[in-house]
């Protein structure tokens, strides 16, 4: 999970979304920093999953329960509705089978939190328009040939995918590094988007409408 200057703000926003005492499965958990915050601030029962051995070692050093696994193989080891929250932070764009993973996440989690870079950010659009090359900037600091990001999408792309898959969106936060972006500006000026989705085994809540504007 790549780090950037707004990562701690990103963590804090996700922590606010999680109810105290919940069970949490953090996919692509990295060094365990997000889970560490959730455990100490919200007293969650947390477990992480990551495929990198170095990240596993750091999680263990923090005292975090962690499992080494490949997200592209799905979540077959986890029962349906077995976690209150399944979190995927800055990892959706790195997996080979994002649709399959989303299906698995809404099966396992009563609620799902997905946070990913917004490729529709205005700086990315301008770099493509004026230079005709894949964007490289402070939010996407990789060349096209060595990037870990293989499935970039925009906010609108993700909203459309959720509609196609029949996954209700409960809440949305648009972020630009260290502050929130107003809804009217989110498609252009958010560098990342955080969605809360309803899992298959969650009770029907009052749904917040999400427009594609």
User: What is the beta-strand fraction?
Assistant: 15-25%
**CATH-derived topology:** Rossmann fold
CATH top level? Alpha Beta
Radius of gyration (Å): 17 Å
Strand order of the largest sheet: 3-2-1-4-5-8-6-7
Number of structurally distinct domains:
1
Structure summary, number of beta strands: 8
Q: Report the major sheet.
A: 8 strands, mixed
What is the CATH architecture term?
3-Layer(aba) Sandwich
Order of helices and strands: HEHEHEEHEHHEEHE
Derived from helix and strand composition plus strand pairing, the structural class reads alpha/beta
End-to-end separation in angstroms reads: 29 Å
Question: Any overview of this molecule?
Answer:
Helix content is 31%, strand content 22%. It is of the alpha/beta class and 213 residues long. The protein has a single domain (7-198), classed as Vaccinia Virus protein VP39 (Rossmann fold, 3-Layer(aba) Sandwich). The protein has an eight-stranded mixed beta sheet with strand order 3-2-1-4-5-8-6-7, with helices on both faces.
